[in-house]
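We modelled the chain as a single entity of 254 amino acids. Its sequence is:
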Amino acid sequence: MADAADFYTGIVAESYAPLKSFSPEPDPYAAFVRAAGEPALELGCGDGDPLLALRRQGLDVAGVDSSADMLERCRERAAREGVTVTVHHQRMEELRLDRRFRAVFLAGPTFNLLPDDATAEAALRRVREHLTDDGTVLIPLHVPAPTPARELGTVRAAPAADGAELRFSMVSEERDEAARTQTAVLRYERHRGDESTVVERAWALHWYRRSDFERLAVAAGLTPVSVTDADGAEADDDTAYLTFRLRAAEPAAG
């Protein structure tokens, strides 16, 4: 099974922007950075949403992502838009930067792409080590719902930059409640004239109940300040969409 670094390559990276169904609004993240302070770091910045918008607002925000192909697209977008941006090709759980940050955030539940609790705790420890002692972390999470059977095989299509047709569909999905994982086989297609490319990749999500993630955060040296649902109310252990705000529990080593 491909991890996120291997999943978002080639045709998948090319298809991401044309076929995505959602782009995060930059304003909530700009407000978070202004409240928490600069410098800031976006984890899982991908091809630049909302990172580039925050840079256009003059905020000191860098990005990090595990996919080299997505980062190359981010750099290309930045160059086209005349935006100066600093991005790093690293995995969250192996983060090694020469800077600490007052604000660290993910713009959406990208943290769910980490495969298990051990990797998640390692990533949280690396975040803590890159956080200033007065810094704040914002991590959205979700518990994915099973995909209705009628939606399997449904095709979405969009044009590529060179006029080719890009297609996306979900082939199958498996769910393991005990392991808290949901794995889908996704099909990406590219058709232009007589040339066709078809790739299938497994896309795995690992989810957390509130209590699961609190335990990992505390073990990594982070203290939850608030845990809210999609409406901003206090989240409980069965909340499907939740956002953690975390602060440092103790000074980082070194």
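As a brief sanity check on the tokenised model: The chain has a mean pLDDT of 95. The two ends are 36 Å apart (CA to CA).
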